[in-house]
Amino acid sequence: MKNFNGTILVAGATGRTGLWMVKSLQTHHIDYHLFVRSGAKAIELFGPEIVDKLTLGTLENPEEIKAAVSHAMAIICAVGGNVTDPASPPPSAIDRDGIIRLATIAKEEGVKRFILVSSLSVTKPEHPLNKYGQVLTMKLEAENEVRRLFSEAGFSYTILRPGGLTEGSPLQHALIFGTGDTITRGSIRRSNVAEVAVLSLFNKNAHNLTFEIIEGKESEQVSIEQLFTYIDND
Ligand SMILES: NC(=O)c1ccc[n+]([C@@H]2O[C@H](COP(=O)([O-])OP(=O)(O)OC[C@H]3O[C@@H](n4cnc5c(N)ncnc54)[C@H](OP(=O)(O)O)[C@@H]3O)[C@@H](O)[C@H]2O)c1
Protein backbone atom coordinates (compact mmCIF):
# COMPACT_ATOMS: atom_id res chain seq x y z
CA MET A 1 0.00 0.00 0.00
CA LYS A 2 1.24 3.52 -0.80
CA ASN A 3 1.61 5.91 2.10
CA PHE A 4 2.38 8.92 -0.06
CA ASN A 5 0.79 10.01 -3.31
CA GLY A 6 3.05 12.05 -5.52
CA THR A 7 6.58 11.80 -6.78
CA ILE A 8 9.60 12.34 -4.55
CA LEU A 9 12.71 13.84 -6.07
CA VAL A 10 15.91 12.48 -4.53
CA ALA A 11 18.81 14.91 -4.90
CA GLY A 12 22.16 13.19 -4.42
CA ALA A 13 20.60 9.80 -5.23
CA THR A 14 23.91 8.29 -6.35
CA GLY A 15 25.58 9.12 -3.03
CA ARG A 16 26.01 6.57 -0.26
CA THR A 17 22.96 7.82 1.68
CA GLY A 18 21.01 8.71 -1.46
CA LEU A 19 21.09 5.17 -2.75
CA TRP A 20 19.50 3.96 0.50
CA MET A 21 16.86 6.67 0.05
CA VAL A 22 16.00 5.09 -3.30
CA LYS A 23 15.89 1.59 -1.80
CA SER A 24 13.63 2.80 0.99
CA LEU A 25 11.27 4.58 -1.44
CA GLN A 26 11.11 1.37 -3.49
CA THR A 27 10.31 -0.66 -0.35
CA HIS A 28 7.52 1.77 0.57
CA HIS A 29 6.17 1.75 -3.02
CA ILE A 30 6.54 5.51 -3.33
CA ASP A 31 7.08 7.05 -6.77
CA TYR A 32 10.43 8.73 -7.20
CA HIS A 33 12.55 10.70 -9.62
CA LEU A 34 16.32 11.13 -9.29
CA PHE A 35 18.46 14.25 -9.73
CA VAL A 36 21.96 12.99 -10.41
CA ARG A 37 25.23 14.22 -11.85
CA SER A 38 25.98 10.98 -13.67
CA GLY A 39 23.45 8.89 -15.56
CA ALA A 40 26.02 6.09 -15.92
CA LYS A 41 26.52 5.93 -12.14
CA ALA A 42 22.73 5.89 -11.58
CA ILE A 43 22.25 3.05 -14.06
CA GLU A 44 25.12 1.11 -12.51
CA LEU A 45 23.53 1.46 -9.05
CA PHE A 46 19.84 1.08 -9.89
CA GLY A 47 19.72 -0.74 -13.24
CA PRO A 48 18.78 0.38 -16.76
CA GLU A 49 15.05 0.57 -15.88
CA ILE A 50 15.85 3.74 -13.91
CA VAL A 51 16.62 5.72 -17.04
CA ASP A 52 13.15 7.29 -17.36
CA LYS A 53 13.37 8.52 -13.77
CA LEU A 54 16.54 10.58 -14.18
CA THR A 55 17.23 14.28 -14.55
CA LEU A 56 20.92 15.01 -15.00
CA GLY A 57 22.45 18.09 -13.43
CA THR A 58 24.11 19.75 -10.49
CA LEU A 59 23.09 22.10 -7.72
CA GLU A 60 25.17 24.82 -9.37
CA ASN A 61 22.79 25.02 -12.35
CA PRO A 62 19.36 26.65 -11.81
CA GLU A 63 17.92 25.41 -15.14
CA GLU A 64 18.85 21.81 -14.34
CA ILE A 65 17.33 22.17 -10.87
CA LYS A 66 14.14 23.59 -12.40
CA ALA A 67 13.88 20.63 -14.76
CA ALA A 68 14.38 18.17 -11.90
CA VAL A 69 11.91 19.72 -9.45
CA SER A 70 9.16 19.86 -12.06
CA HIS A 71 8.70 16.12 -11.37
CA ALA A 72 8.28 16.48 -7.62
CA MET A 73 5.73 17.01 -4.91
CA ALA A 74 8.46 16.59 -2.28
CA ILE A 75 12.26 16.53 -2.23
CA ILE A 76 14.66 14.47 -0.20
CA CYS A 77 18.13 15.97 -0.36
CA ALA A 78 21.20 13.90 0.53
CA VAL A 79 23.72 16.05 -1.32
CA GLY A 80 27.01 16.87 0.33
CA GLY A 81 30.26 18.24 -1.02
CA ASN A 82 33.55 16.38 -0.67
CA VAL A 83 35.12 18.51 2.05
CA THR A 84 38.48 16.77 2.18
CA ASP A 85 39.18 17.13 -1.54
CA PRO A 86 40.68 20.57 -2.24
CA ALA A 87 39.77 20.16 -5.94
CA SER A 88 36.04 19.98 -5.08
CA PRO A 89 33.88 23.08 -4.71
CA PRO A 90 33.90 24.34 -1.09
CA PRO A 91 31.05 23.72 1.37
CA SER A 92 29.92 27.32 0.83
CA ALA A 93 29.16 26.40 -2.81
CA ILE A 94 27.46 23.02 -2.23
CA ASP A 95 26.35 22.51 1.37
CA ARG A 96 25.09 26.10 1.66
CA ASP A 97 24.50 27.80 -1.71
CA GLY A 98 23.66 24.62 -3.63
CA ILE A 99 21.07 23.50 -1.09
CA ILE A 100 19.61 27.00 -0.83
CA ARG A 101 19.36 27.18 -4.64
CA LEU A 102 17.57 23.82 -4.71
CA ALA A 103 15.16 24.81 -1.91
CA THR A 104 14.42 28.23 -3.41
CA ILE A 105 13.66 26.91 -6.90
CA ALA A 106 11.69 23.99 -5.48
CA LYS A 107 9.46 26.38 -3.53
CA GLU A 108 9.00 28.66 -6.56
CA GLU A 109 7.99 25.63 -8.62
CA GLY A 110 5.38 24.50 -6.09
CA VAL A 111 7.17 21.67 -4.29
CA LYS A 112 5.35 21.33 -0.98
CA ARG A 113 7.76 19.42 1.22
CA PHE A 114 11.53 19.47 1.71
CA ILE A 115 13.52 16.87 3.62
CA LEU A 116 17.17 17.67 4.20
CA VAL A 117 20.00 15.53 5.50
CA SER A 118 22.21 17.88 7.50
CA SER A 119 24.55 16.95 10.38
CA LEU A 120 24.96 16.72 14.11
CA SER A 121 26.78 19.75 15.60
CA VAL A 122 25.86 22.32 12.95
CA THR A 123 25.27 24.88 15.69
CA LYS A 124 28.82 24.44 17.07
CA PRO A 125 31.13 26.87 15.23
CA GLU A 126 34.16 25.61 17.21
CA HIS A 127 33.64 22.00 16.11
CA PRO A 128 36.81 20.50 14.52
CA LEU A 129 34.92 19.61 11.31
CA ASN A 130 34.48 23.32 10.66
CA LYS A 131 38.17 23.50 9.73
CA TYR A 132 37.00 22.07 6.39
CA GLY A 133 35.56 25.23 4.85
CA GLN A 134 33.21 25.86 7.81
CA VAL A 135 31.17 22.91 6.56
CA LEU A 136 28.93 22.69 9.63
CA THR A 137 28.20 26.40 9.63
CA MET A 138 27.44 26.22 5.90
CA LYS A 139 24.99 23.40 6.58
CA LEU A 140 23.34 25.45 9.33
CA GLU A 141 22.87 28.37 6.96
CA ALA A 142 21.23 26.04 4.44
CA GLU A 143 19.03 24.59 7.19
CA ASN A 144 17.95 28.09 8.23
CA GLU A 145 16.84 28.90 4.72
CA VAL A 146 14.99 25.61 4.30
CA ARG A 147 13.18 26.27 7.58
CA ARG A 148 12.33 29.82 6.51
CA LEU A 149 11.05 28.82 3.07
CA PHE A 150 9.14 25.70 3.99
CA SER A 151 7.54 26.73 7.28
CA GLU A 152 5.02 28.90 5.41
CA ALA A 153 1.43 27.69 5.42
CA GLY A 154 0.92 24.95 2.84
CA PHE A 155 4.57 23.87 2.92
CA SER A 156 6.62 21.81 5.36
CA TYR A 157 10.16 20.64 6.04
CA THR A 158 12.00 17.97 7.98
CA ILE A 159 15.69 18.36 8.78
CA LEU A 160 17.63 15.31 9.93
CA ARG A 161 20.95 15.82 11.68
CA PRO A 162 22.71 12.45 11.71
CA GLY A 163 25.87 11.54 13.57
CA GLY A 164 28.85 9.96 11.78
CA LEU A 165 27.58 7.90 8.87
CA THR A 166 28.35 4.19 8.62
CA GLU A 167 27.42 1.31 6.31
CA GLY A 168 25.10 -1.63 6.90
CA SER A 169 21.48 -2.64 6.54
CA PRO A 170 18.63 -0.71 8.22
CA LEU A 171 16.52 -1.43 11.28
CA GLN A 172 19.19 -3.39 13.19
CA HIS A 173 19.61 -0.80 15.98
CA ALA A 174 17.51 1.24 18.35
CA LEU A 175 17.53 4.85 17.22
CA ILE A 176 18.03 7.86 19.45
CA PHE A 177 16.43 11.14 18.41
CA GLY A 178 17.19 14.52 19.97
CA THR A 179 16.54 18.21 19.46
CA GLY A 180 18.53 21.37 20.17
CA ASP A 181 21.87 19.90 18.98
CA THR A 182 22.67 18.52 22.42
CA ILE A 183 23.85 15.08 21.24
CA THR A 184 27.60 15.61 20.92
CA ARG A 185 28.70 12.30 19.42
CA GLY A 186 27.41 9.10 17.91
CA SER A 187 27.03 7.32 14.61
CA ILE A 188 24.26 5.94 12.45
CA ARG A 189 23.98 3.77 9.37
CA ARG A 190 23.14 5.63 6.18
CA SER A 191 20.37 3.09 5.63
CA ASN A 192 18.70 4.16 8.89
CA VAL A 193 18.97 7.83 7.97
CA ALA A 194 17.25 7.00 4.69
CA GLU A 195 14.49 5.04 6.41
CA VAL A 196 13.79 7.90 8.82
CA ALA A 197 13.82 10.43 5.95
CA VAL A 198 11.29 8.43 3.96
CA LEU A 199 9.04 7.81 6.96
CA SER A 200 9.08 11.52 7.72
CA LEU A 201 7.48 12.13 4.33
CA PHE A 202 4.15 10.82 5.51
CA ASN A 203 4.40 11.06 9.30
CA LYS A 204 2.76 14.32 10.39
CA ASN A 205 4.79 14.39 13.62
CA ALA A 206 7.93 14.88 11.51
CA HIS A 207 6.60 17.94 9.72
CA ASN A 208 8.39 21.22 10.50
CA LEU A 209 10.84 19.39 12.70
CA THR A 210 14.63 19.52 13.02
CA PHE A 211 16.18 16.66 14.93
CA GLU A 212 19.41 14.82 15.62
CA ILE A 213 19.62 11.10 15.09
CA ILE A 214 22.14 8.46 16.16
CA GLU A 215 22.07 4.74 16.80
CA GLY A 216 21.74 3.12 20.20
CA LYS A 217 22.25 -0.53 20.98
CA GLU A 218 21.87 -3.35 18.49
CA SER A 219 18.24 -4.42 18.45
CA GLU A 220 16.10 -5.38 15.47
CA GLN A 221 13.38 -2.79 14.79
CA VAL A 222 10.00 -3.72 13.37
CA SER A 223 8.95 -0.10 13.01
CA ILE A 224 10.59 3.18 13.95
CA GLU A 225 7.67 5.48 13.18
CA GLN A 226 6.59 5.74 16.82
CA LEU A 227 9.87 7.56 17.55
CA PHE A 228 8.52 10.74 15.94
CA THR A 229 5.88 10.92 18.65
CA TYR A 230 8.51 11.53 21.32
CA ILE A 231 10.32 14.44 19.67
CA ASP A 232 9.67 17.94 20.96
CA ASN A 233 9.00 20.33 18.12
CA ASP A 234 11.34 23.31 17.70
N1 LIG B 1 30.10 11.44 6.42
C1 LIG B 1 29.54 11.59 7.59
O1 LIG B 1 29.89 10.94 8.60
C2 LIG B 1 28.38 12.56 7.72
C3 LIG B 1 27.87 12.82 8.99
C4 LIG B 1 26.74 13.65 9.08
C5 LIG B 1 26.17 14.21 7.94
N2 LIG B 1 26.74 13.95 6.71
C6 LIG B 1 26.08 14.54 5.54
O2 LIG B 1 25.13 13.59 5.08
C7 LIG B 1 24.90 13.78 3.67
C8 LIG B 1 25.07 12.45 2.93
O3 LIG B 1 26.39 11.98 3.15
P1 LIG B 1 27.00 10.78 2.26
O4 LIG B 1 28.19 10.29 2.97
O5 LIG B 1 25.93 9.85 1.82
O6 LIG B 1 27.47 11.62 0.99
P2 LIG B 1 28.15 11.11 -0.37
O7 LIG B 1 28.20 9.64 -0.44
O8 LIG B 1 29.43 11.87 -0.50
O9 LIG B 1 27.11 11.63 -1.47
C9 LIG B 1 26.97 12.98 -1.73
C10 LIG B 1 26.06 13.13 -2.92
O10 LIG B 1 26.02 14.53 -3.26
C11 LIG B 1 26.18 14.63 -4.67
N3 LIG B 1 26.73 15.94 -5.01
C12 LIG B 1 27.88 16.49 -4.60
N4 LIG B 1 28.04 17.70 -5.13
C13 LIG B 1 26.94 17.93 -5.89
C14 LIG B 1 26.50 19.00 -6.72
N5 LIG B 1 27.24 20.09 -6.86
N6 LIG B 1 25.33 18.89 -7.38
C15 LIG B 1 24.57 17.78 -7.24
N7 LIG B 1 24.93 16.73 -6.48
C16 LIG B 1 26.10 16.81 -5.83
C17 LIG B 1 27.10 13.50 -5.04
O11 LIG B 1 26.99 13.22 -6.42
P3 LIG B 1 27.85 12.03 -7.12
O12 LIG B 1 27.15 10.76 -6.74
O13 LIG B 1 27.77 12.36 -8.56
O14 LIG B 1 29.24 12.14 -6.56
C18 LIG B 1 26.53 12.39 -4.17
O15 LIG B 1 25.43 11.79 -4.80
C19 LIG B 1 25.90 14.85 3.22
O16 LIG B 1 25.26 16.11 3.24
C20 LIG B 1 26.95 14.80 4.33
O17 LIG B 1 27.64 16.01 4.46
C21 LIG B 1 27.81 13.14 6.59
Write the layout of secondary structure elements.
Blueprint: E1 8-11, H1 18-27, E2 32-36, H2 39-46, E3 54-56, H3 62-69, E4 74-77, H4 92-108, E5 113-117, H5 135-150, E6 156-162, E7 164-166, E8 173-178, E9 187-189, H6 190-202, E10 209-218
Parallel strand pairs: 1-2, 1-4, 2-3, 4-5, 5-6, 6-10, 7-9
Antiparallel strand pairs: 8-10
The structure holds NADP nicotinamide-adenine-dinucleotide phosphate (NAP).
NADP nicotinamide-adenine-dinucleotide phosphate binds at residues 12, 14-18, 37-38, 41, 58-60, 78-81, 94, 98, 117, 119, 162, 164-165, 190.
CATH topology label: Rossmann fold
Taken in chain order, the helices and strands follow as: EHEHEHEHEHEEEEHE
Q: Report the structural category.
A: alpha/beta
What is the count of distinct domains? Answer: 1
Residue stretches low in confidence (pLDDT < 50, at least 5 long) are none
> What is the CA-based Rg, rounded?
16 Å
CATH superfamily: NAD(P)-binding Rossmann-like Domain
User: How do the strands of the widest beta sheet line up side by side?
Assistant: 3-2-1-4-5-6-10-8
The total count of helices amounts to 6
Q: How would you describe the shape?
A: globular
Tell me what portion of residues adopts beta-strand conformation: 15-25%
CATH uppermost class? Alpha Beta
Helix content: 25-40%
The distinct bound ligands, ions and cofactors come out as: NADP nicotinamide-adenine-dinucleotide phosphate
> Ends: how far apart?
31 Å
Average pLDDT number:
95
